[in-house]
Amino acid sequence: MEAGYGPSPTPAGASAQRGPGRAAAVVLEMLRAQEEPTTAASLADRLGQHTNTVREHLDALVEDGLATRERARANGRGRPAWLYTAAPSPTSARGEYAGLATALAMQLAKSSTHPRDDAVAAGMEWGRHLAVALPEEPATPGAARRDVVRLLDGLGFAPSPDQRAMSVRLRQCPLLDAARQQPDVVCSVHLGIVRGALATWHTTSEGTSLIPFAEPGACLLHLTGATERTP
Q1: Cα separation of 99 and 144, whole Å?
Q2: How confident is the model over 16-37, as pLDDT tens digits?
Q3: pLDDT value, residue 13
Q4: Distances in whole angstroms, Cα of residue 31 to Cα of each of 42, 83, 150, 157, 215
Q5: Which one-letter DSSP state was computed for residue 166?
Q6: Given a cut of 70, is residue 159 above it in pLDDT?
Q7: Rounded distance, CA 220 to CA 207, Å?
Q8: Which of 118, 137, 220, 231 is 20 to 30 A away from residue 26, measured at CA?
Q9: Cβ-based burial of 51 (10 A; exposed 0-12, middle 13-18, buried ≥19)
């Protein structure tokens, strides 16, 4: 790899998602204080705000990956209310990922007879796990590509996609030191994560590729193969 090429390290403790505004942050803190999933109306009552206002903040938090929502059980007529839950801290989740992925990659590099293939396979299992944790499955290949970008953002890659998320620059790497030592293995884990998530979302994944240290400041992820739905 050429000197100066590739991403920068992911800053320790840096937020992976766009931070909420002040009003939404207040709602998020109240949501984190709840022991069980709760409704917008219940939070609004605690905060002394209008339910519609709180619901708008909650939906924005869900969109940013800071909260999740699911329907309450049906009880009589009418559509059940949404129940909201604060998402796990992105910083702690990213730190856990970095430690486990580094250990996995180094073990594969030492012990596997086919480290690259095994790294992709391990990454795919990881990607499937991350994909099913999202509150809603993307309905189209375009939405799946955008959710891949969100997933990578949550892991600390600071992705910068083009307009249709066909090509994505990964401007940071939470495993940069390990990737410089074992790029075939570490970067294959990352490619596997992408492919596993896409496969879980019923989107073609075999045509995806990852070029490590492709240019100054970034690796390049190509999602041009993620354009069709699968059974």
Answers
A1: 27
A2: 444 556 778 788 888 888 888 9
A3: 47
A4: 10, 11, 22, 27, 41
A5: S
A6: yes
A7: 14
A8: 137
A9: middle
Joined together, the tokens standing for residue 162 give 């083009």
**Nearest Cα residue to 223 out of 207, 199, 203:** 207
Those residues whose C-beta lies under 8 Å from the C-beta of residue 51, and which sit 6 or more positions away, are 40, 41, 44
Q: Give pTM, 2 decimals.
A: 0.64
**What gap in Å lies between CA 90 and CA 32, rounded to an integer?**
13
Q: Which amino acid is at 67?
A: A
State how far the alpha carbon of 109 is from the alpha carbons of 88, 165, 173, 175, 213, in Å. 31, 31, 19, 15, 19
- Cα–Cα distance between 20 and 23 in angstroms, integer? 8
Tokens 């709180």, located at residue: 54
Residue 209 three-state SS: strand
Chain centroid to CA 116: how far?
23
79-114 residue pLDDT tens = 888 999 987 654 455 555 666 667 777 778 788 889
Residue of 12, 211, 179, 199 lying closest to 121 (CA atoms)? 199
Rounded Cα gap, residues 229 and 200, in angstroms: 11
